[in-house]
Amino acid sequence: MLISPPFLHPDRTGAAHPDDDAQFIDDAMPNVVAYHGLSGNFPISYNLGWHGGRHIGANLDGTIVPVRAIADGVLCYRREPTKKPTDGDTLKNHPLNYRGLWTDDGVVILQHTTEIGESVSVTFYSLYAHLSELKLTAQPGDRVYRKDVLGRAGAITGQTYRIHFEIIADEDNLKRLIPGPFNAYDPSKAHGRNTCVWGDIYFHVPASQPVYRRNPREIVPQDYTIQETDTLDGIAQRFGTTVDVLAQLNRATHQRYRPQMSYEQWFAYQRSYVDTAYAGPHLRIMQVPQRYDTTVSATEDRGPNPVLHPYATTAQPMIVGMHLFQGGTFTTYGDDGSVLGLT
To answer: What is the Cα–Cα distance from 18 to 256, expressed in whole angstroms?
Structure first.
């Protein structure tokens, strides 16, 4: 599901960082200050009261922009705003004239449902309050689409061109969206959810875990001298690979020098040099994957194919968080939640 801000900036071409997503959100959803100071924040607002959303302004660089739907959804509630009385006495005693300052009460609520992974569906709601005018013609139950104009931002305690914006989900949907806080499991004994992956991703790394300078699953070719007793299956097993992978690694040499032979025949031909008096090691070379291991015999380690050893091991259990929104940064935490490092 595509989601955009309730206000869209009229012109991003002149922005300092037009392609910066985080800056785009900040520019499109400016926080506002009330006449009595800081107000309308989430989750605590004026007088330390609970505030389920955020007050944001529709004045973007001098242009008053309309309120828009943040995503495709269904209209589930709409309320036309109360007209501001023109009579002084009526206005003075009106319940929307908070502290002698007018507040608009137009409201739109949309329901959104989206798939976030394999058989994982989430329903949430977006609320747009303090509208001075409703522009949409849809009625409850009708479809509304992302960027559709919903209305015009109104007044909050006398301050104009602002709305109260809120995203809401019940506990069942929150558990599907962010299961971690509701699903206390031991990461050293069980894997987390893998049917849907989005946002930040966390990996549990146990203590004494070997750390390599390269990805152990990456196939890095190296030379190997074929021995007289070697077989293709034996070499594949020794290097933790398959005969098909060995064929791919040696395809260029095979096709260049013995294209008429099958791969098995080419291997037998290379190995046959072992029995000749003039054959040097360079005639019995083939490509094999680099080995990654921590427990090998001294003989294997001194052989023609040195084992790639870890350059370090983890001293304590760690949780590594990959933050996709922040450009792929990594934060490492201890088991107690303390930050150990940032890359």
So the answer is: 51
Nearest to 221 by CA among 207, 203, 241, 206: 241
DSSP 8-state class, residue 84: P
| Closest-CA residue to 161 (of 55, 42, 86, 68) | 55
Which amino acid type is present at position 289?
P
pLDDT tens-digit map of 78-98: 999 999 999 988 999 999 998
Q: How is residue 52 annotated by DSSP?
A: S
Place of tokens 């350059």: 311
**Residue 18 banded pLDDT, cuts 50, 70, 90:** low
Question: b or e along 154-168 (b: 16 or more beta carbons within 10 Å of the residue's beta carbon)?
Answer: bbbbebebbbbbbbe
Tens of pLDDT, residues 119-134:
788 999 999 999 999 9
Name the one residue in this structure whose structure tokens are 């569906």. 121
Find, among 164, 161, 199, the residue nearest to 42 by Cα: 164
The tokens of 303 are what? 């052989």
**Cα distance between residue 324 and residue 330, in whole Å:** 9
Note if the bond before 43 is cis, omega within 30 degrees: yes
Q: Which residues contact 2 (CB under 8 A, 6 or more apart)?
A: 71, 72, 146
Is the torsion defined by CA of 236, 242, 243, 244 positive or negative? negative
Q: How confident is the model at residue 107 (pLDDT cuts 50, 70, 90)?
A: very high
Written as one letter, the residue type at 307 is: V
What does the DSSP assignment read for 157-198?
TTEEEEEEEEEE--HHHHHHH--GGG----TTTS----S---
Express each pLDDT in 21-49 by its tens digit. Answer: 777 777 888 877 665 556 688 888 777 78
Query: Is pLDDT larger for residue 299 or for residue 339?
Result: 339
Task: Report cis status (omega within 30 of 0) of the bond before 30.
Answer: no
Nearest to 7 by CA among 126, 116, 123: 126
